[in-house]
Amino acid sequence: MPILDSEVYTVSELIVTMDKMPSTIAEAEVGQVDHDEAHHDSVIEAQEDETKDQEGGTKDREDKTDSVINIVQDPIDSLYESVRMLKQGGEGRVKILRRRSTRQLAISKSSWRRRGADNEVNILQLVHKHPQIVDFHDLFESTGAGSESHLVLGYCQGGDLDDLRDRFKRHHMQMPEPLIWHFYGQLAEAMHWLHDSCDVVHRDLKPGNVLVVAGPEDGSYPGLKVADFGFACVGEQPAEESHVGTPMWWGPEERPGTKAQDMWAVGAIVHWLVLRTLPVDAAAAEVSRDASRGARRRAAVEAPRVVRSICNDETVQKYVGDREGVEKPTAYSRELDGWMRRALEADPGSRITAKELCGEFLKRAKEVVARDAKDLPDWVMPDAPLDDWGSDNSPEGFAHW
To answer: CB of 149 within 8 A of CB of 110?
Structure first.
């Protein structure tokens, strides 16, 4: 498999990240401390090289199944037209684009070139051929004085899980249990592919790194795509805690960077989707606003992990009813609570693996969705999110680069 020139961008440096509305100081100061370093809208299917035709014009190309992520030397405006500027600053600019040949929307992030950032591109070459993993369009590179690179990414209509969860909060609606089963199953499939087919550990799994796309059919539930492989590695490489990922999404083990750590993050995402709080003692993780980055990370690492019951009426009322204004929220099933806890085992050796989840659990999740799923409101997957994107005041706006 070809390895690209090392002077390219990682998706974690280039992916657009959406502005968030954290519900606690601990989440704002600690849980999202690395939000500026990563992510959003992430990355679509590799394509063939664009070649010049005999008249010297640019010839458009079709998608193919080759796993090589392409670097295009032609100007970006030869293939894409600009729709809207989302953000412009010293680090670069982010735009919504439309591909000239297909009229499909995409996102571009343009930045100055930097070295030593090819890890994510190489990881994506290994993992991107899966429906629950983000896709790439193109990487354009200009040369000469003031050279820039332009990463073109797939346009994800639903934003990320942070944005989706915020929409439920703003509409004072409880996230339905079949949707939780569905998302849990999609995360299990993504991790099974990464861990068991590719031997890749993500090492920074959290809602801001999981994108939401429309379902395959009208009326079907949205799909998920895992994004941002800037911290990912091949094989288990436990790292120093100060160097990898977002501490509030780590398990209680001292050294993150394992497949078991990824599975804790999956369980933590389920816990957060239901209760909009992490399985962490937020009070213990809270620090002053002027605390150093290192102090915030240490507080997050040292805070006790607390797994709350999602099948308890009082707990659901406290976190969903009282905090989010949902009228008469209902507790989730003991069965779902049990499966969530399997991923949140304190002992990494006892924690369920992705392969195990994709057995009995995945079969059960599909049964629950087929039996109990109901139509979701239109705002879950808005038809035209362009009006909201790009606003620093909107939870769906792009604000961090």
So the answer is: yes
Pairing mode, strands 136-141 and 71-72: parallel
Reported as a single tens digit per residue, the pLDDT across 203-219 is 999 998 898 988 887 77
Amino acid at 375: D
Dihedrals phi, psi of 149, to nearest 5 degrees: -120, 145
- Crossing angle of helices 161-170 and 259-275, in 10° steps, is 20
Domain ranges of the chain: 11-157, 161-382
For the chain, the distance separating the N- and C-terminal CA atoms, rounded to the nearest angstrom, is 31
309-333 pLDDT per residue, tens: 999 999 999 999 998 989 899 999 9
The model's pTM is 0.74
CATH of domain 11-157: 3.30.200.20
Name the fold adopted by 161-382.
Transferase(Phosphotransferase); domain 1 (1.10.510)
Inform me whether the pLDDT recorded for 90 exceeds 50: yes
**Residues ≥6 apart with Cβ < 8 Å to 277:** 23, 24, 271, 308, 319
For 142, residues 6+ apart whose C-beta sits below 8 A from its C-beta are 75, 148, 149, 150
